[in-house]
């Protein structure tokens, strides 16, 4: 990855509140902001629960469908 592209990604992460960075001369030090990661983890956990419930309902629905190749007249 080229340096300008890398720096652009760092700027996006910093603008989103994911990292903090300091620059001293030519050295840039970045730190991950744990509170932002914890908030994202909480949101992802809620989404996981939601989607697991939806997929469980879909699985139950599909299990109750007549199978392919079965003859309903028999």
Give structural notes.
- It is a single chain.
- The protein is built from two helices and two strands.
- It has helices spanning 3-15, 34-63, and strands spanning 19-24, 27-32.
- The protein has a two-stranded antiparallel ribbon with strand order 1-2.
- The mean pLDDT is 89.
Annotation keywords:
58% helix; elongated; 74 residues; two-stranded antiparallel sheet; 16% strand; alpha+beta; 2 helices
Summarize, please:
By secondary structure, the chain is of the alpha+beta class. The chain has helices spanning 3-15, 34-63; strands spanning 19-24, 27-32. The protein contains two helices and two strands, in the order H-E-E-H.
Element order, helices and strands?
HEEH
Strand order of the largest sheet: 1-2
Note the beta-strand portion: 15-25%
Alpha-beta classification: alpha+beta
Q: Overall mean pLDDT score? A: 89
Overall geometry? elongated
How many helices does DSSP assign? 2
What's the number of extended β-strand segments?
2
SSE arrangement:
Blueprint: H1 3-15, E1 19-24, E2 27-32, H2 34-63
Antiparallel strand pairs: 1-2
């Amino acid at each position: 990855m080229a340096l300008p592209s890398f720096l652009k990604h760092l700027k996006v992460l910093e603008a989103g509140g994911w990292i903090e960075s300091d620059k001293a001369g030519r050295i840039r030090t970045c730190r991950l902001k744990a509170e932002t990661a914890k908030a994202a983890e909480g949101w992802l956990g809620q989404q996981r629960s939601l989607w697991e419930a939806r997929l469980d309902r879909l699985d139950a629905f599909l299990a109750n469908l007549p199978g392919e190749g079965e003859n309903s007249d028999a």
